[in-house]
Write a structure and sequence with these properties.
Structural class of chain A: alpha+beta
Distance between the termini of chain A: 41 Å
Shape of chain B: elongated
Structural class of chain B: alpha+beta
Number of strands of chain B: 3
Number of helices of chain A: 12
Number of domains of chain B: 1
Shape of chain A: globular
Order of helices and strands of chain A: HHHEHHEEHHHEEEHHHH
Largest interface: A-B, 85 and 56 residues
Largest sheet of chain A: 4 strands, antiparallel
Number of strands of chain A: 6
Strand order of the largest sheet of chain B: 1-2-3
Oligomer: heterodimer
Strand content of chain B: 25-35%
Order of helices and strands of chain B: HHEEEHH
Number of helices of chain B: 4
Number of domains of chain A: 2
Helix content of chain A: 25-40%
Chain lengths: ~350, ~150
């Protein structure tokens, strides 16, 4: 028998009305505008765009406001919105070599051509609360310096000259798209990278950390980390040529990893790769470490049974919207399921009781 | 794609500039052109998503990085020129203005439009880019070596 239960409507409406009021908070405090969130909570915006898998800072700001700052809820809103958008097409692969870098550092070569450019970083801050920020005040302008017309070649290209590092051969072709086809295992590297770049920052970070602590250790160095703007170019069929359809800030991390060689490969350095929307450095480094760990098979390394080597484990649990959807659904009414469990446990108890009474009687 | 003609290259450049322009700036510069000419829609403004790709290791095989919002439209002026508007984001009037500018650039008002709209947009874009580059340059590390130990 299936019994539909109704009656929550008024309670739900009232709960949502109260939610709106709580979202606004104390009305004697000025309300946050979407523009203020976009401009002043930039790194939250970046995380929502990266994991929501949609580059649109205004939408991310709106989602953060609506979700009261719960970033996973905001990512959920963005994911839901993007399903309503028609797919106009796909871009050419972005050329990160032509990035206008805000930041570009290498942990492997001090004197890398183009230099070590720190950019607007939290690194080297003392992590002491700055109470000046609690008071309103004008900021001094950031210092400037004349720019030199100097290329910023990839650090890995630099190593390639000696043949010391595995190369990334340029290929073309249509990559798989997990937003269009269900995930299939084994996944190829492009599919893994798509899953990782939109994966939960905390999860990807922890997976990366596990490799550093010894679960499939791969000795990573940050060969290069760069953050900046790239143009996004797309073919327009009506025009018969491509144009830039926009530009975006991305973070790219290339790790250089020790590799002692295998049957097919001589000892050389290998690579892990991270590329993420926005200024999202922790995520990009994490992604590169996990990417490298997942490449054990193609590099002929041993599977040591580490979680970060288990592609299905990593990719099936990296998406925080899938995870939270399944996790949070268990708080919704399961009255009928539970009723049947209750019946079952009662029956089992009755059987056990009857058996033990019979035993005692004998 | 095959080699482009000089006309196509020029159009590619202004369409790319318009796509990346801030909506408020384009609107302001378009005001200088007076009332925008009448046009009929070939394709009214539509917001959609473009899947942006990257390459493994920066140079290898393509992979899907994530989507971005883009708004596009196409229109015809009364004099027959077809204008395409492709802009980043979800602003439909921004796409419309871009398409009108694209169409006008194919008319005898091209010089006026370049002066009033494209040149100021480009100047502002270059200025913003170099202001950021100068701030980045100020954070470049100048290493120096400390000599230590006995002489």
């Amino acid at each position: 028998m299936y019994v539909a239960v109704k009656g929550g409507e008024r309670a739900i409406d009232n709960a949502h009305a109260w939610l709106a009021e709580e979202r606004r908070g104390d009305t004697s405090i000025a309300e946050l505008s979407v523009e203020q969130i976009r401009e002043q909570l930039g790194l939250a915006i970046n995380r929502v765009m990266a994991e929501g898998s949609l580059y649109d800072p205004d939408l991310a700001a709106l989602a953060i406001k609506q979700s009261r700052g719960d970033l996973i809820e905001a990512i959920f809103l963005i994911r839901a919105y993007r399903t309503t958008l028609p797919r106009i097409g796909h871009s050419h692969p972005i050329d990160t070599g032509k990035m206008a870098c805000d930041r570009r550092i290498s942990a492997t070569f001090k004197d890398v051509p183009g230099g070590q450019v720190l950019g607007p970083t939290f690194d080297y801050t003392h992590r002491l609360l700055d109470f000046k920020l609690a008071a309103e005040g004008e900021l001094p302008e950031a210092p400037i310096r004349e720019t030199e017309a100097q290329d910023m070649p990839r650090v890995t290209d630099y190593l390639n000259r000696e043949g010391m590092i595995q190369t990334e051969e340029r290929t073309e072709g249509t990559p798989p798209d997990l937003t269009r086809q269900p995930m299939e295992y084994p996944a190829n590297r492009p599919l893994r990278l798509q899953a990782l770049t939109r994966g939960d920052e905390g999860f990807v970070l922890s997976m990366a950390y596990s490799t550093q602590r010894g679960y499939a250790r791969n000795h990573p160095f940050v060969g290069e980390l760069r953050i900046g703007k790239v143009a996004v170019e797309m073919d327009i069929s009506a025009l018969g040529f491509s144009i830039d359809i926009g530009e975006m800030t991305v973070t790219e991390c290339e790790t250089v990893n020790q590799f002692t060689g295998s049957k097919s490969e001589p000892p050389q350095f290998t690579r892990g790769y991270g590329l993420v929307f926005g200024q999202t450095e922790r995520k990009a480094i994490s992604m590169a470490l996990v990417d490298r760990a997942l490449r054990w098979k193609e590099l002929g390394e041993d599977n040591v049974g580490a979680p970060a080597q288990d592609e299905e484990f990593v990719l099936a649990h990296s998406d925080n919207i899938q995870a939270t959807g399944f996790l949070e659904h268990i708080k919704l009414p399961h009255y009928v399921d539970f009723q049947s469990e209750l019946e079952l446990v009662r029956k089992l108890r009755a059987e056990v009781m009857a058996a033990s009474q019979k035993e005692a009687a004998e | 794609m095959t080699d482009l003609t000089p006309d196509q290259k020029a159009r590619q450049a202004w369409l790319s500039l318009l796509a990346k322009s801030p909506p408020a700036a384009l609107a302001e510069h378009c005001d200088a052109l007076g009332t925008l000419p009448d046009h009929t829609w070939l394709q009214p403004p539509e917001t959609g998503a473009v899947m942006v790709r990257g390459r493994t290791g920066g140079t290898g095989a393509p992979f899907n990085l994530g989507e971005m919002t883009v708004t596009r439209c196409a229109l015809t002026l009364e004099t027959g020129e077809v204008g395409h508007g492709y802009v980043q984001g979800r602003d439909k009037s921004h796409a419309q203005r871009a398409a009108v500018v694209d169409a006008l650039m194919q008319t005898d008002r091209a010089n006026e439009v370049r002066r009033a709209v494209l040149t100021p947009l480009e100047t502002a874009m270059i200025a913003a880019k170099s202001a950021r580059a100068e701030k980045a340059a100020a954070t470049k590390v100048d290493f120096f070596t400390m000599v230590r130990g006995e002489d």
